[in-house]
Hints:
Blueprint: H1 2-15, H2 30-45, E1 53-54, E2 71-75, H3 84-90, E3 92-101, E4 105-106, H4 110-119, E5 124-129, H5 136-146, E6 156-158, H6 174-192, E7 197-200, H7 202-208, E8 218-221, H8 227-230, E9 238-246, E10 254-259, H9 263-270
Amino acid sequence: MMRWVGVLILAGALLGCAPAAYETPAPINDAAAAEAARVAAEVARLRTYPTFGDADPVEWDRRPPERHPVHGIDVSRWQQTVDWRAARRAGVSFAFIKATEGGDLADPMFDAHRRGAQAEGVPWGAYHYYYFCRSAESQARWFIRNVPRGAPLPHVLDMEWRPHSRTCRLRPDGRTVRREARKFLAMLEAHYGRRPIVYTTVDFYRDTGIGGLDGTEFWLRSVADHPQKTYPGARWVFWQYSGTGLVPGIAGEVDLNVFRGSPEAWVRWRDL
Length: 272
């Protein structure tokens, strides 16, 4: 045995390599092993690749959402009845819940939804529907007033055009939109300790250049094709692929979403 070790060391020297390359590998770090075991245990609890119904199904081109393992929903006052246990067992792995809108509107179902999700172990984050006739600062303060700390997921800034609004149809230029978004995101990050995600739509993304926000993760709506086609080159973490989903435990239609990544990536991202 010693003869072969000597040969390997000599060969390493001749090749300009350090002899350490042939030594016994160091044992796996205990902390890394514990983390790998934790992630594996969490993944085992997930129901991956669920199949939900859809009231208005789409024929997907090559990259259907079913290929993504981790699915979730977003809810608001329009979902009056949610059996969170049934939804979780059906494969709902996360939920984004509407909390506020503008600077003075709070969703009446927010507390019921977040408590229901929390009781059944469904990770949740809250979202704010942005109103272009109020300042970013006033809207961030309103959100903070209504949403407690302790959510398992980062919160969300929902920015999209409001062509049917009865009170505000302003369409600020892209520079203004990005400036206001940065203010809102910074205030929430300072308060909650994690930078919010930005949710948006195809036309808003195209018109404002909001995808250029540094250090920001995106949740993109695309209900007729894959984001790779509708948002070419965009970086995204969540994809909202349907607004007409049918999920066990939820009365009526609900938005469906996927996480971009493996179950292991989901657990690590969720627990950042």
